[in-house]
């Protein structure tokens, strides 16, 4: 019988086999070979692609190189979204490996945030964690932590250290004995069909009568099109970390076990494959 | 969802609507934009400024110092003095956009802003600072906010600069408490924007403050 804690490891160690190819219009001194890499689902593109950058820069001249950015089938990839989210949302219906195109020119200013350094990724990651704790605990738990604890969360993610990360993160997963869960659940729901990048609203894990809210309850309330039609063939898949959890799953459990390291549930709604 | 909080989303929208009413009276340009699914929205204002300091043939008009002039002032210049430089000026017109959104996570308003040339080229944060008066630059460094960072606009999905909201309650609570004590009506948005706005080049005419005292609005 699988322990709930094993789920935490499975989520942390999820990987996506990826093939990086240099954009054909980039100027090279010789042919650029594609570069293959297993990307951690829970991390961020600009955090784990130093080797990719070095590989392609070897065949380019310094003057032809400016900020690196990634694209999948014409869509610029937002480095500030977790890798697993990007894959589930954009590429999960295609065959592996995930084919990503690498660019060093014409940064799409209207679509992508700049990523000037690792510090920018750390700032973004910590900002998400703080927002998640604002929702779960009115920021009390994260504000009580020392700077070194915050640093440990970031270093754990950066260096792929599960134990180091969870030694601190477990405190963010606790709640008062008299409650049945967090104050509100940190979640974001993504769909490619809307202009709005994601849906995020206040939603409690426990109903007034003490019943635990489920994933289905959440979707019905904030994104009913995701589970339409209720009677009959569903049009969409509800995906997180590459799997479709049962809609009956309690949201509190999902938040404790299937959140990304930033403590948010990043949920993708994708059209069902008909084949 | 629920409005058991001090400054919930409905309260935010109400204060914005009162603020916009006054803006319309004085022609200050703020308007409300609803999201496509109409479930929420934001308040926004766009203004244009001309950045001088580029090559000009008539030194009588500009003294060579980098200044930002509102468009109206430039148009007052006699046309024949202005003709030669007109094409050079077009590329230096800067469009500033300010958006006020509601953060349900922190239950406060958040200021998003960006600036670009007319051809769409965005300005970097340091370029925007050049347009901000020196005394506000100091305030920025001392202010009760962590930083200004580039973030994704939650409704438009595009990069904007943001004044981080997590310390907003720290500076707003004393203002609201004091207003309650002296039994004065204030508009949360007006008070908040008058503090954070100037730091990013956004100024509020004083009439906003006077308008609210006459309203029935309570926070």
From TrEMBL, chain A:
Subcellular location, principal: cytoplasm
GO biological process: one example: response to fungus
Domain Autophagy protein ATG5 UblB span(s) in chain numbering: 184-269
Gene Ontology cellular-component annotations: Atg12-Atg5-Atg16 complex; autophagosome; axon; axoneme; glutamatergic synapse; mitochondria-associated endoplasmic reticulum membrane contact site; phagophore; phagophore assembly site membrane
Domain Autophagy protein ATG5 UblA: 11-104
Family matches, as InterPro entries: Atg5, ATG5_HBR, Atg5_HR, ATG5_UblA, Atg5_UblA_dom_sf, ATG5_UblB
Cell compartments where the protein resides: Cytoplasm; Preautophagosomal structure membrane
UniProt membrane topology term: Peripheral membrane protein
GO molecular function: Atg8-family ligase activity
Domain of life: Eukaryota
Keywords: Acetylation, Apoptosis, Autophagy, Cytoplasm, Immunity, Isopeptide bond, Membrane, Ubl conjugation
Segments forming domain Autophagy protein ATG5 alpha-helical bundle region: 119-174
PANTHER family: AUTOPHAGY PROTEIN 5
Oligomer status and interactors: Forms a conjugate with ATG12. Part of the minor complex composed of 4 sets of ATG12-ATG5 and ATG16L1 (400 kDa); this complex interacts with ATG3 leading to disruption of ATG7 interaction and promotion of ATG8-like proteins lipidation. Forms an 800-kDa complex composed of ATG12-ATG5 and ATG16L2. The ATG12-ATG5 conjugate interacts with RAB33A; this interaction is bridged by ATG16L1 and promotes ATG12-ATG5-ATG16L1 complex recruitment to phagophores. Interacts with TECPR1; the interaction is direct and does not take place when ATG16L1 is associated with the ATG5-ATG12 conjugate. Conjugated with ATG12.
Described purpose of this protein according to its UniProt entry: Involved in autophagic vesicle formation. May play an important role in the apoptotic process, possibly within the modified cytoskeleton. Its expression is a relatively late event in the apoptotic process, occurring downstream of caspase activity. Plays a crucial role in IFN-gamma-induced autophagic cell death by interacting with FADD.
The family this protein is said to belong to: Belongs to the ATG5 family.
Full protein name: Autophagy protein 5
Species of provenance: Sciurus vulgaris (Eurasian red squirrel)
UniProtKB/TrEMBL annotation, chain B:
Chief location bin: cytoplasm
GO MF entry, a single one: Atg12 conjugating enzyme activity
Protein name: Ubiquitin-like-conjugating enzyme ATG10
Family of this protein: Belongs to the ATG10 family.
Pfam families in alphabetical order: Autophagy_act_C
GO cellular component term, pick one: cytosol
GO BP annotation list: autophagosome assembly; autophagy of mitochondrion; ER overload response; protein modification by small protein conjugation; protein transport
InterPro entries xrefs: Atg3/Atg10
Keywords of this entry: Autophagy, Cytoplasm, Protein transport, Transferase, Transport, Ubl conjugation pathway
Function description: E2-like enzyme involved in autophagy. Acts as an E2-like enzyme that catalyzes the conjugation of ATG12 to ATG5. ATG12 conjugation to ATG5 is required for autophagy. Likely serves as an ATG5-recognition molecule. Not involved in ATG12 conjugation to ATG3. Plays a role in adenovirus-mediated cell lysis.
Organism: Sciurus vulgaris (Eurasian red squirrel)
Family matches, as PANTHER family: UBIQUITIN-LIKE-CONJUGATING ENZYME ATG10
Keyword Oxidoreductase on entry: no
Subcellular location: Cytoplasm
């Amino acid at each position: 019988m699988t322990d709930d804690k094993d789920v935490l490891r499975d989520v942390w160690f999820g990987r996506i086999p990826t093939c990086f190819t240099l954009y054909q219009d980039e100027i090279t001194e010789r042919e650029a070979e594609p570069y293959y890499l297993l990307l951690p689902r829970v991390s961020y593109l600009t955090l784990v692609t130093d080797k990719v950058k070095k590989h392609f820069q070897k065949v380019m001249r310094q003057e032809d190189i400016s900020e690196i950015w990634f694209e999948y089938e014409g869509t610029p990839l937002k480095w500030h979204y977790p890798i697993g989210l990007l894959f589930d949302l954009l590429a999960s219906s295609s065959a592996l490996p995930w084919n990503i195109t690498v660019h060093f020119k014409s940064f799409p200013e209207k679509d992508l945030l700049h990523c000037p350094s690792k510090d920018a990724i750390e700032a973004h990651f910590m900002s998400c964690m703080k927002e998640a704790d604002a929702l779960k605990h009115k920021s009390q738990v994260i504000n009580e932590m020392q700077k070194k604890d915050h640093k440990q969360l970031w270093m754990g993610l950066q260096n792929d250290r599960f134990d180091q990360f969870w030694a601190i993160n477990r405190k963010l997963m606790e709640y008062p004995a008299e409650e049945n869960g967090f104050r509100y659940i940190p979640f974001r729901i993504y769909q490619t069909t809307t202009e709005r990048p994601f849906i995020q609203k206040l939603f409690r894990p426990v109903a007034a009568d003490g019943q635990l809210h489920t994933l289905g309850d959440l979707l019905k309330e904030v994104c009913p099109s995701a589970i339409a039609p209720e009677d009959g063939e569903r049009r969409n898949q509800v995906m997180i970390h590459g799997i479709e959890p049962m809609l009956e799953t309690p949201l509190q459990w999902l938040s404790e076990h299937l959140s990304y390291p930033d403590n948010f549930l990043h949920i993708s709604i994708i059209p069902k494959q008909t084949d | 969802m629920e409005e058991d909080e001090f400054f919930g989303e409905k309260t935010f929208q109400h204060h914005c609507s009162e603020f916009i009413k006054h803006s319309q009276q004085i022609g200050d340009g703020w308007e409300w934009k609803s999201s496509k699914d109409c479930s929420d929205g934001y308040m926004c204002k766009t203004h244009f400024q001309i950045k001088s300091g580029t090559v000009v043939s008539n030194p009588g008009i500009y003294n060579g110092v980098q200044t930002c002039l509102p468009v109206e002032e430039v148009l007052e210049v006699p046309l024949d003095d202005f003709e030669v430089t007109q094409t050079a000026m077009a590329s230096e017109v800067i469009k500033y956009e300010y958006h006020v959104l509601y953060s349900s996570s922190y239950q406060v308003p958040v200021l998003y802003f960006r600036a670009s040339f007319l051809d769409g080229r965005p300005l970097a944060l340091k370029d925007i600072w050049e347009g901000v008066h020196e005394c506000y630059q100091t305030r920025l460094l001392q202010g009760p906010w962590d930083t200004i960072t580039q973030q994704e606009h939650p409704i438009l999905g595009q990069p904007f600069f943001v004044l981080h909201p997590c310390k907003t309650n720290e500076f707003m609570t004393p203002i609201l408490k004091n207003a309650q004590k002296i039994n004065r009506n204030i508009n949360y948005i007006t008070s908040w924007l008058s503090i954070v706005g100037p730091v990013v080049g956004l100024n509020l005419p004083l009439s906003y403050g006077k308008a609210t005292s006459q309203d029935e609005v309570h926070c």
